[in-house]
Amino acid sequence: MKMKQYKTGILALLLVAAGTTQAVAGQMNVWEWAYNIDGITTAGDPSVFPAGGTGLGSVSTNISGQGSHKVIFYMDYEIDEDDNTYFNEFGSSSGITAGGQSWEIDEPGFVYGDIYAHLISGVLDNSNGVPSSAPDDVAIAMGWDFTLLAGQSAVIDLLISDTAPSSGFYLTQTDPDSQYSIYFSSYLTRKGGEPDQNPVPEPATMLLMGSGLVGLYAARRKKGQKA
Predict the structure, then answer these.
(1) Is the pTM of this model over 0.90?
(2) What does the alpha-carbon distance between residue 189 and residue 60 come to, in Å, rounded to a whole number?
(3) Which of 44, 41, 36, 37 is nearest to 76 (CA)?
(4) Is there a domain that residue 6 lies in?
(5) In this structure, are strands 101-106 and 57-64 parallel, antiparallel, or unpaired?
(6) Count of domains observed in the chain
(7) How far apart are CA 69 and CA 58, in angstroms?
(8) pLDDT in tens, 115-170
(9) Residues with Cβ < 8 Å from 21, sequence gap 6 or more?
């Protein structure tokens, strides 16, 4: 009997240089980000995003191993926080989700939101808890549930931009006072299909992915407690 093979690639940040966009766009900084891969949630390091810039770019992960998989990305951005706080923003969704795709917009969980709890549980609720009629602190999450055949792998990308996608499903975070928006879209691409003749489980990789789990809730910085 073949053993189920886990080869979960460590997240690779592909940060887009702000360039001339930085002079046009508002100040967009990452307060917090995290990800759940096959039930293991890890808090990301906000400092890997460009400080003082737009903080825009993309996050990618490679997944392989026959069977069912789940990937969720969570992002908590602030737009022009120094000028007009962080709780004046709202979210919206556009387009139609692809098969297996899920999403959520909510207050990050410092006050009333449950999006971070849903990140950890691995089940997003496909709803917007911070509409334009009730602005607050905004966090977004986008996820995928999918199955891989023997020899297949998948690349999942989360794209973060100040330009709205021309098609497909995406989420928007808007600061009405500065009139700037951030757009989040996610794509799943399957590759391969030839079976691996000598599959070997790799639990060490999974442990590495989960190394940030200890005290995940306790370690979250509350808004207003910046260094």
Answers:
(1) no
(2) 11
(3) 44
(4) no
(5) unpaired
(6) 1
(7) 21
(8) 999 999 999 999 999 999 999 999 999 999 999 999 999 999 999 999 999 999 99
(9) 54, 56, 162
